[in-house]
Each structure stands twice: as C-alpha cells, then as structure tokens.
C-alpha cells in the first residue's frame, strides 16, 4: 500500500519528495520489525517525508490510538538519532541524513479505514513536540488521509501528467495606471500577456484545478522547504513587497482571448503553469491556514500562447529556460537532441516477439501493451552501468545527462547533435536487451530466495548486478580472446535469441548471473561487519566496484574451460533452430 501510494500518487503530484530513481524506493520502505512506527522515511531538499499506512477490511473503523502513536514518531526517531533508542537497519540509515534543527517534516497517516472527526482534529494539532526543538511546530505537519482522500489524490495524480486540457479565466489586477496587463507580440506572431495577479486569485485557481494546473511543469512543488515557508511568511507579513521578492509565474496556453466585457479578464484554453508551482501552492497554503492573508499579495504573471503541434521544440525550450533555477529532472532537457530522436527511429525497426520497440525519449503517460517500451533514462542508466558502473557512483542522473566532456552523456550516446552509427546503436541495444534478460533472472532468483528466507542484501539493486555481469564478461572474453562487442551487437536483435526458451544464450546469461551474484555476496560479506558500514552506501561507493572485481577475477582462473561465452552459445542455438 505504501509503495503504491508513493509511486502512483506522490511521484505524480510532488515528485521532489521521493527518490528520483524508483529502484531506490524500497531502500526507504522501513516497515518491519522494530520500525519505530513508520513505513516510509525519505529526506530530500530539507523535507522529510514519513508515511504510516494501515490497510483495513471493508467498513472497518480506524483505531484512533494508531494515529496518536504515529503523532509520537518524531520523538521516537529523534531519540534514536541521539542514541537513546535503536530501530531496524533501514530506519537508522534513513534518519541518519536528517537535519533535526532545520528540516521540514511531512507526516502522512494513510488508512482505508473509516476515520472520525476527533481523528481529524488530532491530525490538525500536528505531531507531539520534542523538548530540544522549540520551533518544530512550525516545521511539521500531520495529514490524515482516509480512503476518500486517498482516492481523491489518486484521481488527481492520474490527471496530473496528461496533456494540459484545463481552461481558466485569469483576472489581472490593474496597475497604478489602471492597466490590467500588457500584450507583447513577437515578430513570429507569438502573443504573451504580462501583468499582476492577486494571491487570492491564484489560491482560488489552485483550489478549483489542483494539479491540473501543472500538467507541463517539469518539477512540481516539493513540500514545505525553507523556500516555500519563506513564501508563506512573506505573503503574510510583507504583502506589498511580495511582487518585488518573488520571481513570478510563467504559464502557457493554446488560446488566449480577452473578455468582451471585462478588460481585466483573459480566457485561456489548455492552460498550464510551467514555472511557479511552489509559489501557487504556497499561496494556497497561506490562504487556507490564514484566510484573507494573501488578498493584498500581487504576483507577476505571464501567459504565453503556443500552437499545438507546431511549437513543440519552442515550448520545450520555454519550459527548460523557465526551470533552470530548480533542481529538475535533467534528462528532460536532452529529449529533443538529434541523437534521441534518431534512437526512437532506430528502435522502432526492432521487435521483441510481436511487439515493436517504443523508445521514449520524452515522458508520456500512455502505456501501449502492444509495444515494448524503452525509457530514455532507463536505457542510459543500463548502458552506463554495464560498461562503467552505476551512475550513482559518478554523480547520479545529473552526471549521466551532463553532455559536457566531464559528464556521462557522451559515454552512452556520443555527441548530442549527431546520430549514433549503426555499430554504436547495436552495441547499446545489445547491452540493453542482455540486461533486460539479466533482470528477468534476477527477479526470479530474488522471489525464490524470498520464499526460502535466504535473500541476500548484496543483490537488492539490479544496477550493480548489471555491472557485475558486464565485468565478468569482460574478464572472460579477455581470457578467451573473443570479441565481446561483436557478440553484444548480435543481441540487438532479440528475436534471434530471447524467445528460445531453452536457447544456449539464455542458459549462458543465467550462469553469468549465478557466478556474478556469488562474487557480489562474497564482496558484501567481507565488509558488512565493519562498525562504520552503511548498507545503502555500499551501492554508491566506487570501492564496491573494486571489491567485486577482485572477487570476479578468480572465476576465469578456476574455470579454465566451458566459460559462458555468449557467441559460442548463440551459434549452437542458431544451428539447433
């Protein structure tokens, strides 16, 4: 229940509150024995999200004492951080990053049970305070989300990533000369309306439309960070200065029409805010907590009209340049690179079974079951990990999509403005499909180990498994003198090998996985008992690659014959078919 809520609701509505890589989510699901009364703990951008979920049967009431216990969670976790308590490993690692003196705490109690008015009142009171943290009341909130609220959030999440289809009527506040707004028109005929909008107008707009306002926003509101709290405080205490302190709001619409009777109103079709989600939601929060507090606030706003189907690249640039001050998903900025468009065309010529490959250089909501989806970020992370190690060890996604000579982008894709050669593409595609098969084996083995209670913590991350298999193959081919790249390029046509249930290639991959995973377990076992060992960091520390290579290196030495070499197995599979 917690995982579903995180991936399907929070990831769409407030993505900055969860790990950027979904594979990391399980690291922060701390539910289990001695969990301190929390199911999920994650810190990002000075905001700490803590979730407790309760799944109840139909028409069951939620126990108010469960909520009361959850309201004490910060006291328990703070005590553990100070060495007064001890919880399970995942909890202790999750709270080790918390800045108790400055972080904002977003506590969410999720239940499908029936809740009472008394429970809502208790949630509104906030968490029980910590004696050493006098200002905690201003930095922590408790939300009670019952089945109705959870379903409402899910519906908002489902609509949040659709193409903008929201129609709004925007009222500009007249300036000192009585003018409501300025119309600017470019030489190419693009119109933009610029003016001031009241904080109350924006708060009401958000109350009516919620997340539909941000359909094209790269990065949504990320919680009550210091910046957002500052917006609320400025709106309350210095409304006249807000216009000068705030960067304003940028929006786009496919059609902007001036009202025939009221010159202060413009009607916008397919409206979306592309920068300013934090401002809008913070003003809404100030408005709901302190009614009337934002009536005198003025915010600079501009609305740009664009032509659907014609202004795609221009709109992408507008969104990018309006968001460069935020910590955004950098992969979105590379989606229009010529190399990415070419990859989409190249993958479209490949099938997995009867399904045509669909390379998603841009994030799209629709999932087509008739196509084999390949995400741009997934492809980049897979190829880089197989060849060089997980990107987390080099600087994460920001490094991976840094197209400069110091970044990882060119390692995977080459020059952004160029197309991949057929040879380069086949190598990358072959690595991707090989790792896809490794992932299938990994999932099967993990499920079996879980049933038997023998799951190894060393195998929690598939990325490190990809690297270990790749490194083992490099060692094997160095010993046998084979051409690994040629064999990997062969794998770029999955229908030659992937659909042969007893093919030699699939058998070789299973054996490679078993050998590599054994080496990973041995490397983990040698360091995990150290007093300063942190499980989560093992997957991010480059020394881990050194330790794994050391364990892998002995395999070709003691396996002098019958090493799992891909090409030899593929030939046998071709002949038998």
The tally of strands reads: 14
Q: Give the radius of gyration.
A: 27 Å
The largest sheet is: 7 strands, mixed
Q: Separation of termini?
A: 45 Å
Summed up:
By secondary structure, the chain is α/β, with parallel strands linked by helices. The protein is 44% helix and 15% strand. β3, α6 and β4 form a beta-alpha-beta unit.
Could you characterize what this model shows?
The chain has 577 residues and is of the alpha/beta class. The chain folds into 3 domains: 2-157, Trna Endonuclease, Chain: A, domain 1 (3-Layer(aba) Sandwich); 162-328, no CATH class; 338-576, no CATH class. 44% of the residues lie in helices and 15% in strands. Strands 5, 6, 7, 8, 9, 10 and 11 form a 7-stranded mixed sheet that branches. A 4-stranded mixed sheet has the order 1-2-3-4. A 3-stranded mixed sheet has the order 12-13-14. Helix 14 crosses helix 17 (422-452), helix 14 (376-388) crosses helix 18 (462-480) and helix 20 (504-527) packs across helix 22 (543-552). It is globular and about 85 Å long.
Which descriptors would you attach to this protein?
577 residues; alpha/beta; Trna Endonuclease, Chain: A, domain 1; 3 domains; 7-stranded mixed beta sheet; 4-stranded mixed beta sheet; 24 helices; 14 strands; disordered C terminus
């Amino acid at each position: 229940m917690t995982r579903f809520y995180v991936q399907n609701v929070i990831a769409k509505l407030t993505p900055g509150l969860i790990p950027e890589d979904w594979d990391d989510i399980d690291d922060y699901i701390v539910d289990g024995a001695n969990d301190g009364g929390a199911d999920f703990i994650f810190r990002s951008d000075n905001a700490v999200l803590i979730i407790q979920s309760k799944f109840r049967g139909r028409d069951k009431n939620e126990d108010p004492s469960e909520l009361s216990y959850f309201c004490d969670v910060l006291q328990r976790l703070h005590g553990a951080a100070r060495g007064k308590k001890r919880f399970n490993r995942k909890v202790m690692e999750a709270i080790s990053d918390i800045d108790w003196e400055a972080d904002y705490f977003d506590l969410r109690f999720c239940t499908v049970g029936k809740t009472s008015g008394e429970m809502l009142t208790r949630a509104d009171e906030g968490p029980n305070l910590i004696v050493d943290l006098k200002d905690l009341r201003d930095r922590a909130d408790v939300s009670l989300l019952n089945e109705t609220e959870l379903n409402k959030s899910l519906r908002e999440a489902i609509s949040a990533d659709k193409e903008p289809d929201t129609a709004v009527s925007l009222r500009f506040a007249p300036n000192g000369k009585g003018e409501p707004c300025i119309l600017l028109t470019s030489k190419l005929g693009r119109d933009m309306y610029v003016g001031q909008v009241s904080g109350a107008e924006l708060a009401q707009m958000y109350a009516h439309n919620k997340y539909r306002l941000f359909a094209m926003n790269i990065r949504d509101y990320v919680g009550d960070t210091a910046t957002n709290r500052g917006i609320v405080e400025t709106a309350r205490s210095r409304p006249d200065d807000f216009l000068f302190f705030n960067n304003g709001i940028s929006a786009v619409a496919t059609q902007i029409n001036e009202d025939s009777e009221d010159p202060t109103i413009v009607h916008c079709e397919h409206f979306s805010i592309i920068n300013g989600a934090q401002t809008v939601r913070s003003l809404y929060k100030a408005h709901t907590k302190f009614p009337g507090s934002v009536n005198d606030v003025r915010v600079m706003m501009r609305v740009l009209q664009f032509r659907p189907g014609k202004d795609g690249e221009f709109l992408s640039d507008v969104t990018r340049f309006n968001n460069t001050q935020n910590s955004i998903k950098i992969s979105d900025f590379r989606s229009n690179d010529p190399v990415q468009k070419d990859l989409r065309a190249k993958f479209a010529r490949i099938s997995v079974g009867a399904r045509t490959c669909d390379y998603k250089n841009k994030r799209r909501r629709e999932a087509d079951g008739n196509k084999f989806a390949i995400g741009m970020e997934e492809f980049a992370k897979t190829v880089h990990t197989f060849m060089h190690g997980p990107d987390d060890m080099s600087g994460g996604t920001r490094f991976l999509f840094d197209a400069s000579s110091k970044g990882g982008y060119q390692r995977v894709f080459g020059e952004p403005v160029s197309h991949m050669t057929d040879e380069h593409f086949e190598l990358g595609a072959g690595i991707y499909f090989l790792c896809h098969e490794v992932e299938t084996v990994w999932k099967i083995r993990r499920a079996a180990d879980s049933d038997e209670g023998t799951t190894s913590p060393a195998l929690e991350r598939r990325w490190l498994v990809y690297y270990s298999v790749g490194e083992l193959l490099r060692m094997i081919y160095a010993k046998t003198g084979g051409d690994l790249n040629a064999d990997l390029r062969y794998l770029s046509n999955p229908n030659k090998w992937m659909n042969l249930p007893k093919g030699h290639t699939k058998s070789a991959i299973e054996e490679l996985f078993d050998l590599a995973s054994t080496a990973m377990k041995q490397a983990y076992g040698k360091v995990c008992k150290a007093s300063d060992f942190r499980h989560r960091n093992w997957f991010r520390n480059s020394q881990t690659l050194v330790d794994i290579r050391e364990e892998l290196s002995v395999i070709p030495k003691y396996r002098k014959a019958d090493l799992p070499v891909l090409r030899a197995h593929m030939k046998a599979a071709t002949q038998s078919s």
